[in-house]
Amino acid sequence: MSKIAVTGCGCICAAGADTDAVWRAIQAGLVNNRADSNHLFLEREDVPVFAVPHLALPAIFAEAVAERAAGGELNRTIILTLTAVAEAIGAANLTVAQLRTKRVGIALGTTVGCTFNNEDYYIQWQKGESPDPGPVHRYLSANLAERVQDILGVRGPRAVVTNACASGTDAIGLAKMWLDHDLCDLAIAGGADELSRIACQGFNSLMLVSQNSCTPFGAKRDGLNLGEGAGILCLEKEAEATASQREIKGWVCGYGAANDAYHPTAPHPEGRGLQDAVSQALAAAGLGLADISLINAHGTGTPANDRAETAALSALGLGEETTPIVSTKGATGHTLGAAGGIEAVLTLLALGSGKVSGTIGCHTPDPELAVPVLSAGEEARLSGRMGISQSLAFGGGNSALVLEGGGP
Amino acid sequence: MKAIVTRATHISQEEIDLPPELLRHLRRADDFIKLGVLAAFGALEGKTAIPWENPQRCGLFLGSSFGPMETNFAVLDQIVGGQQTSPTLFSHSVFNAAVGYLCRIFNLRGSALTLTDFALPFCQALQQGALAIESGLLERCLVLQVETYSALLNDARRKISPGEAGTWPEGAVCWLLEREDLCQTGGPVLHAVDIAETQGGSYLESGGQLSHNGQEITFNHPLAPAALLTDILNSKKDSGDWRLITPYARVDISLRDPK
User: Fold this and answer.
1) In chain B, whose CA is at the least distance from the CA of A150?
2) What does DSSP say about strands A104-109 and A186-193: parallel, antiparallel, or unpaired?
3) Using CA atoms, how far apart are residues B219 and B226, in angstroms rounded to an integer?
4) Cα distance from B205 to chain A (closest Cα, Å)?
5) Of A158, A202, A257, which has the smallest distance from its Cβ to B75's Cβ?
6) DSSP labels, B209-237
7) Mean pLDDT throughout A48-63?
């Protein structure tokens, strides 16, 4: 099968409004979270969240959105997605008109983007009133992939993956399969999620949220910070990207997914499913772990996740002296369905640049972890261009992408 | 390598009757999870663990239009009421909670995804399931659609589309797909699933038509296409071409007799 080329990347999160800004923020070690005062977390004040400070519909989609006014107002998750899509197709030197001449697959991961969570409507309905039906119409027109397909005016396969925190990684994996099997000429894939009270309250109820800035892999880590954002890749078959003279920014070489079959919310202690997912992704890419120069871990900052993830990598054979392991969630927060998309973009940037910055927030790594991680303030030169971006999820989901960086 | 449709089950909400071997697993589960598990239990012929070697190559694709909507509202209820959120309710409101239960109960350790789309989600899941087998990602997989809707949605339908009579029936459908060379029981070969989305339909008016072997059958709720396909497949063990037409999508499914 042809390798799948990445011809454009787009990214938005609290760390920056585009890919370059996010990359610079991570290299500078910036932590742009803010304390939420009682809006998202009902019972706790001053819980840090990573919110996108400024968000506006990209100009290139304004006309299309206006023409499709019947769909109503766009929710924040869709605007985050469109922001990253605009950047990704721009980076690929593609116009919307060009996209309309192709079979374009849209594979997007999300968690809250699919739920009806209009509190005003719900409260009125509970009281037996007849609320304005606008929120219902908006909900019915808010399927992420369908809406993006509609606004772009393209045809092709589409999927919204709602596999919790692994959704973005799985969406990229599905898009790779579509391209491998010629279901589309080009795919727009990744993930997006906005901050929501339901997610904040829910994670809080599970005691997974830290009251401080998160410290993935840190000795005193006590939970995650939630965030929002979107990360999108523009994917094409390598041969077609080359024929179209599009610059190739990297490649998606392998995808694997597996379930722990263990617990509703906690990972298997030895990362059983993650081991399987990584092994599958490596096999699909025709590589072994020794070929990997970087692992961008899920690294949420919860004790259980970071322990399971490093245990899985150790069981797969990763040793003391080898591959740098980092998490970027100290800069982005845990963006749920967006995380896999954002982290795929950041993995490709690191692989392309040949270096990676340490895990923001992790000043003292947990000595109990099964493999060492790159901590805050450190930087590593990468020994090659192949890396892994991996995600874990509620419901026992695990998924992994083997990515190859482009660049000079 | 193509996929064989080995078994297919359809269960309605009224048929939720948990057998003893599932009771302890589903003690705290909502109806969305129960329906998914019961449909899979049927497709696996009453087994609570898959009988095949290599569980890492057995997975599932679950499609849904609305997900566990009532459980989402139960969480929202606690939030707008200023109450503490129940961790169990919250974890069950996550769209892939049912997939987590299915994998745990049946020891499915391969790729297991939830796909959410208002337009024919079973067909989307079926397409991905077939692709997962053809690509070598999986050897066997369950393909499901589960729908439970909610009182709020039913009420909104009555007000927005008064011509649409009745409440949508809740239920679940599950098909077992097996790689051609591994299948021992036989069944039609899933030759192709082609989905062409169209625009402009209202998802509150979920009517459509199934054409098969010169017959045309109309349907009127989101689970109906998958349920119809399942019921016909089970009654006739039929191959052939099937076409589903709705205002928002057209799907062609080709089932062929095995060689």
Assistant:
1) B199
2) parallel
3) 10
4) 12
5) A202
6) EEEETTEEEEE-STTHHHHHHHHHHHHH-
7) 94
Q: Sign of the CA dihedral B58, B63, B68, B70?
A: negative
Report the distance separating Cα B109 and Cα B17, nearest Å: 26
Say if the Cβ atoms of B115 and A162 lie within 8 Å: yes
What tokens does A61 get?
A: 């989609």
CA separation, residue A242 to residues A245, A348, B256 (Å): 5, 19, 38
Taking only the tens place, the pLDDT of each residue in A186-209 is 999 999 999 999 999 999 999 999
> Do A282 and A406 meet the contact criterion of CB atoms below 8 Å apart?
no
Is residue A117 within 8 Å of A198, Cβ to Cβ?
Answer: yes
Nearest-by-CA chain B residue for A40: B79
- Chain A residues with CB under 8 Å of B37 CB are none
Q: Interhelix angle for A144-152 vs A76-91, to 10°?
A: 50
User: Are A133 and B160 in contact (CB < 8 Å)?
Assistant: yes
Query: Residue B112 and residue A397: Cβ atoms within 8 Å?
Result: yes
User: The tokens 């409507």 sit on which residue?
Assistant: A121
Inter-chain CB proximity B135 and A181 less than 8 Å: yes
User: B100 vs A264: CB contact, 8 Å cut-off?
Assistant: yes
For A290, the token pair is 């020794």
Overall size of chain B counted in residues: 259
Handedness of CA B135, B141, B143, B146 (dihedral sign): negative
* Axis crossing angle, helix A303-315 with helix A272-285, rounded to the nearest 10: 50
8 Å CB contact between A232 and A105: no
Does residue B66 contact residue B151 with C-beta atoms inside 8 Å?
A: no
From chain B, the residues in CB contact with A397 under 8 A are 96, 99-100, 112-113
pLDDT digits (tens, 9 = 90+) for A152-186: 999 999 999 999 999 999 999 999 999 999 999 99
- Chain B hits for A160, Cβ within 8 Å: 115-117
Task: Provide the b/e sequence for A259-275 (b: ≥16 CB within 10 Å).
Answer: bbbbbbbbbbebbbbbb
Q: How do residues A221-251 score in pLDDT, each as one tens digit?
A: 999 999 999 999 999 999 999 999 999 999 9
Buried b / exposed e over B145-168, threshold 16 CB at 10 Å, is bbbbbbebbeebbeeeeeebeeeb
Cβ neighbors of A43 (< 8 A, separation 6 or more) are: A204, B84
How far is A229 from A108, CA to CA, in rounded Å? 13
User: pLDDT band at residue A66, thresholds of 50, 70 and 90?
Assistant: confident
Distance CA(A29)–CA(B32), nearest Å, equals: 43
Q: What angle do CA A360, A49, A294 make, to 5 degrees?
A: 30
Lowest mean pLDDT, pick from A386-395, B59-68, B215-224: B215-224
Cα gap A333→A47, rounded to integer Å: 12
Burial class of B77 by CB neighbour count within 10 A (0 to 12, 13 to 18, 19+): middle
DSSP conformation class of A29: T
Say yes or no: A158 contacts chain B, CB-CB below 8 A: yes
Pairwise CA distance, residues B167 & B227, whole Å: 16
pLDDT averaged over chain B?
92
- Helix (H), strand (E) counts: chain B: 8, 10
Residue labelled with tokens 């039609």: B188
Average pLDDT of every residue of chain A: 94
